[in-house]
């Protein structure tokens, strides 16, 4: 106690720290004679107690205004200054959050606030790219040519029931594609890759400041207690702990390896389940495009491909939600099967599995649309088929990017809406139902006189996986496919602004008070964010090179267009691009099962002889009919070159930024050095004072020594 200046012992520790101290004691109290009869957790697991939780500090509401009468307690103050929807534009009171909920939850909200603030420039640039597409729409030569191509007849996009169509019918989709796929897209992809690195580097600096202010710089996690499950499983085999010198349960290496192999096999199997679900969605798409093409409603019949994509995305979202429930149970089973030694090992293992499952589940269909849709379809007269039956789906005549935009837009909106409902709507309904039952059982007057522990018991407990769901919800599409959907950062920003107050409201009003715990950083999630940053560079390089038409347009402008050899690539150089990107097919070369029911006489009064399709192939009467042209190989080489150059350039910029930005701000480093200097000075002065005092006492007692130090 002599190391601290304590004016009042009752208020020296905040309530979060006091709760942690009490919980630490309760975890180590022996409640019965026996080797393992220790701790509150065992009493909870065997059903002796229903729940154990810290109490909230009274009600979060007050009859009196906080401005005139002040806050009645910290919970009331948090509600008025943080969890209320009316303060959405204000900074978060992080010190108060930390004092009430502990450092771990305080760091989550600090990270969420920092992430939200960093999204402002990304959202602004993304909106600028979109508005740039809007303003240049009327000057885009490619969309102009598509809209004016009334004499170009496209081949059917499915077997039999899909009709021939004019290229000009896809005018709207060509214009929408230009909004997302324009000259600023590459710049935006590079910007977002750099932004992800800057975000993480500056978060490290921000975390260091918070850790210093919250006295976490020198804090190290103490030796964790062994999980009761691990102790019960391996209690017969013990070895000496090298730190404490006490015997503890020990898991043999062979047993650990076998469990990890079984766990990895389970993960691989669940990933195969995801791939099977995606395969089912692919079959649905190739089957229903023909069904919608023969639909009796003209609106659906004329937009069969968009209807197919829209319904497939909605079905995919339902499958994602159902599989998430299954994944949670499987991840829990596999993590328990591994028998992690400590709680932090268990949490890291479970987090990694759930993130991997949910990432694959959420993004597998998006990866299919981005990189496989329309890539391996063959050509009219020689289509590649699934199980030699279903013809693989083709891209829309205006390109594949519109499908990717629809996939991302619908999934993002539906996912955010569903998550927000489950976070707030579900607990609200549960708490309302509990209050209703209490009113019926005890009446309104009796209910208001409940002690605080009973009021809190009727609230919802925090989920068993801590902050896992909160972090997972924030990590999504923001950078992975941002080149295809520049509005993703804006949607993420709007979602985060809502999410901060939603989480705050939930923690303060709808959940029992969670047990406070200390932490120095956001744990394994930092590594996950770094991994996503690296993956986003690769995916965006492939989206620009493979999914969008950026590279084919560039190759045409410099090599085949009106400006070939002049080193220019403006809109005037794109004249004739649409015609050059379409190949010619002889209608009589259709396979029997692919031949459309209509002969195309509605376009010119006589049966069509030729139709066009998206590819770079020779005409039917050339020496090698439907062989790849030289332009195809130029485009392919340019795509590969772009991917290599883009990735190396962006990774170099990322590493350079990482190197240039120090982990600690200069003022914080100076403050830490100043603090260390003052501590040394105080220790020196205290030691000097002690020595001088001893010297005076010796002189007083008549004792003196020669050659004494002063």
Silhouette: elongated
The percent range for strand residues is under 5%
Sheet with the most strands, sense and barrel status: 2 strands, antiparallel
Radius of gyration computed on alpha carbons: 33 Å
Q: What topology, given as strand order, has the largest sheet?
A: 1-2
Overall pLDDT metric: 82
The number of strands is 10
Figure out the total of helices: 26
| Backbone structural class | mainly alpha
Give the low-confidence spans: none
Helix content: 55-70%
Distance between the termini: 31 Å
Main location: membrane
Transmembrane segments: 108-134, 184-203, 260-286, 306-327, 355-376, 471-494, 522-546
Domain Anoctamin transmembrane: 97-675
Keywords: Cell membrane, Coiled coil, Glycoprotein, Membrane, Transmembrane, Transmembrane helix
Fold and architecture overview:
Pfam families: Anoct_dimer (PF16178), Anoctamin (PF04547). The chain crosses the membrane at residues 108-134, 184-203, 260-286, 306-327, 355-376, 471-494, 522-546. It is found in: Cell membrane; Membrane. The model has no long low-confidence stretch (mean pLDDT 82). A two-stranded antiparallel ribbon has the order 1-2. A two-stranded antiparallel sheet has the order 3-4. A two-stranded antiparallel ribbon has the order 5-6. The longest helix is centred in the middle third of the chain and has 42 residues, at 401-442. Helix content is 61%, strand content 4%. It has a domain at 671-698. The protein has 710 residues and is mainly α.
């Amino acid at each position: 106690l002599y190391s601290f200046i304590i004016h009042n012992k009752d208020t020296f520790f905040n309530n979060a720290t006091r709760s942690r101290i009490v919980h630490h004691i309760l975890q180590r109290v022996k409640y019965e004679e026996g080797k393992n009869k220790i701790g509150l957790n065992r009493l909870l697991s065997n059903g002796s107690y229903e729940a154990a939780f810290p109490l909230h500090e009274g009600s979060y509401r007050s009859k009196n205004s906080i401005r005139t009468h002040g806050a009645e307690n910290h919970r009331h103050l948090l509600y008025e200054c943080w969890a209320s929807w009316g303060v959405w534009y204000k900074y978060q009171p992080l010190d108060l959050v930390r004092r009430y909920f502990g450092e771990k939850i305080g760091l989550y909200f600090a990270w969420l606030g920092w992430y939200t603030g960093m999204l402002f420039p990304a959202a602004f640039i993304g909106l600028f790219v979109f508005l740039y597409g809007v303003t240049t729409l009327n000057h885009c030569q490619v969309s102009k040519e598509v809209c004016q191509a009334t004499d170009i007849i496209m081949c059917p996009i499915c077997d039999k029931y899909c009709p021939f169509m004019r290229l000009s019918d896809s005018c709207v989709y060509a214009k929408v594609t230009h909004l997302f796929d324009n000259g600023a897209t590459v710049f935006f992809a590079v910007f977002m890759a750099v932004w992800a690195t800057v975000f993480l580097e500056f978060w490290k600096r921000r975390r260091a400041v918070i850790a210093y202010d919250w006295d976490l710089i020198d804090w190290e996690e103490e030796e964790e207690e062994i999980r009761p499950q691990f102790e019960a499983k391996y209690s017969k085999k013990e070895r000496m702990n090298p730190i404490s010198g006490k015997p503890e349960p020990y898991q043999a290496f062979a047993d650990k390896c076998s469990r990890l192999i079984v766990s990895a096999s389970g993960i691989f199997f669940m990933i195969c389940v995801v791939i099977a679900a995606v395969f089912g969605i692919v079959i649905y798409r190739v089957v229903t495009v023909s069904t919608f093409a023969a639909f009796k409603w003209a609106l659906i019949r004329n937009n069969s491909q968009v209807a197919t994509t829209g319904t497939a995305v909605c079905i995919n979202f339902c499958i994602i939600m159902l599989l998430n429930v299954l994944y949670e149970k499987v991840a829990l089973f596999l993590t328990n099967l591994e028998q992690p030694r400590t709680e932090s090992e268990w949490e890291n293992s479970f987090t990694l599995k759930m993130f991997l499952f949910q990432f694959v589940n959420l993004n597998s269909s998006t990866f299919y649309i981005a990189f496989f849709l329309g890539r391996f379809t063959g050509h009219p007269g020689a289509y590649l088929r699934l199980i030699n039956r279903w013809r693989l789906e083709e891209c829309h005549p205006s390109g594949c990017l519109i499908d990717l935009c629809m996939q991302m837009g619908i999934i993002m909106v539906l996912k955010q809406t569903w998550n927000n409902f489950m976070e707030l709507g579900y607990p609200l309904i549960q708490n309302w139902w509990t209050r209703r039952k209490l009113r019926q059982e005890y009446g309104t007057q009796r209910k208001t006189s409940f002690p605080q522990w009973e009021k809190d018991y009727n609230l919802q407990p925090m989920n068993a996986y801590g902050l896992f769901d909160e972090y997972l919800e924030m990590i999504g599409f923001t950078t992975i496919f941002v080149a295809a959907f520049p509005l993703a950062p804006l949607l993420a920003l709007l979602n985060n602004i809502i999410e901060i107050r939603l989480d705050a409201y939930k923690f303060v009003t709808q959940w029992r008070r969670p047990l406070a715990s200390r932490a120095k950083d956001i744990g394994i999630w930092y590594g996950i964010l770094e991994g996503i940053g690296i993956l986003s560079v690769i995916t965006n390089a492939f989206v620009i090179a493979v999914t969008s038409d950026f590279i084919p347009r560039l190759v045409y402008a410099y090599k085949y267009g009106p400006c070939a050899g002049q080193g220019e690539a403006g809109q005037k150089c794109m004249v004739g691009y649409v015609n050059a990107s379409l190949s010619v097919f002889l209608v009589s070369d259709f396979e029997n099962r692919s031949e459309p029911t209509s002969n195309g006489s509605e376009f010119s009064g006589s049966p069509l002889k030729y139709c066009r399709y998206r590819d770079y192939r020779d005409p039917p009467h050339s020496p090698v009919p439907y062989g790849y042209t030289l332009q195809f190989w130029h485009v392919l080489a340019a795509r590969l070159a772009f991917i290599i150059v883009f990735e190396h350039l962006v990774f170099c910029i990322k590493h350079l930024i990482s190197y240039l930005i120090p982990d600690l701000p200069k003022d914080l480093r100076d403050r830490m050095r100043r603090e260390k200097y003052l501590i040394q000075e105080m220790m020196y002065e205290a030691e000097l004072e002690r020595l001088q005092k001893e010297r005076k006492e010796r002189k007083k007692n008549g004792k003196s020594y020669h050659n004494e130090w002063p």
